[in-house]
Amino acid sequence: MREDVAKRLQALVEAGREKKHIVLSQEDVLFLAKLPGDEYERFKLELYSFALLNSWKILPENRLDALVTRALLESLEKLTARQLTEFVPTAPEGLVLPPGYVVEAGVLLLDPREAFGQTDEGLVRPVAEPAVYLEKFVYTCRGRREVYTATFPKKPRRVELSPAAVEDGKIIPALKNIGVRVFDPVVFLDYVEKSRRLNWDLLSQAEEAEAKEETSALVALLDLLRETILRDKVELRRAVLRTGERVVALWPSDFQRLAKRVGLTEELALQALADAGVLVPSSAREKKRVVAVGTKRARMVVLREGALLPEVEVEAEAEVTPTHPAAGAKASA
């Protein structure tokens, strides 16, 4: 590591020991942006390792820096999946979470090749309505004892390591009971190798893909949507997206841009979006109605088969349904 890079890292760590968290200023972010790729990746890994081992948060210096810092923080979060795969956590209730998983907000994805070896289980769907969803999964280290803290929407639980417990034969049923899906490694080979972010509610489309290229394009499209939805509130040109309510509306121009970006035909992209409850208005009048719904008490509900559709808690005249033929047909089905 270059001397100036090492000094910058040391300064951040020393300041972190005093404040119990790492503060990234705009100057720090701009400095990192100019580093060569290998230096940048190593700096991220070192910084994130310090944060993990000491249970520190990584924060921007002030609100103005938050926008500049966001890109680095998001890339640091992506390291979580790679950092945690070597551990085998076990829940107190006996639920086993084997290695090879990828942690996301609201979902735990498992790679069967890592967790169970080669398996013909394929895509495992929950047999019942999921009881809980993981919101956060944070790794901390206290002495020689590694501890995972899993935050659930209703009831926080502490998950402790037990490498021998991976041999438990009740892994898959236990995972299914809490809504964890185990995906076929062949279908998601690209995702597993690149540690890509996925929205598990939308992935039933990839199971039906007939070609690997088509599957990769679908995954990329859902990946883009996921990254957008994760932000507090984002306006992509004329698109209105919110975190809690999922996707409220996506204007045709933005939809076409997303489809083109991932090399997907508009028909396939529209089908995937319709299954996710994404509204693609076809008229200016409906755009106004969608915006009206999105700014009131509209919320998204999860339906069976992973489809997302809006449940509107406003006046009857504010109700919105997709008008695009393909989207409307799929949503009504």
Please describe what this structure looks like:
With 333 residues, the chain is α+β, with helices and mostly antiparallel strands. The protein has 3 domains: 3-79, no CATH class; 89-185, no CATH class; 204-332, no CATH class. The chain is 43% helix and 17% strand. It has 13 helices and 14 strands. The protein has a 4-stranded antiparallel sheet with strand order 3-8-7-6. Strand 6 and strand 7 (145-151) form a beta hairpin. Helix 1 (3-19) runs parallel beside helix 3. The longest helix has 22 residues, at 63-84. The N and C termini lie far apart (57 Å).
Task: List key phrases describing it.
globular; 17% strand; alpha+beta; 3-stranded mixed sheet; disordered C terminus; 3 domains; 333 residues; 4-stranded antiparallel sheet
**What percentage of amino acids are in beta strands?**
15-25%
Question: Can you list the strand order of the major beta sheet?
Answer: 3-8-7-6
Percentage of residues in helical conformation: 40-55%
Summed up, the helix count is 13
The low-confidence parts are: 62-215, 226-249, 289-333
Arithmetic mean pLDDT: 45
| Main β-sheet description | 4 strands, antiparallel
* SSE arrangement, N to C: HEHHEHEEEHEEEHEHHHEEEHHHEEH
Radius of gyration, CA atoms, in whole angstroms: 21 Å
How many strands appear in the DSSP assignment? 14
Q: Give the helix/strand class.
A: alpha+beta
Shape type: globular
Domain module tally? 3
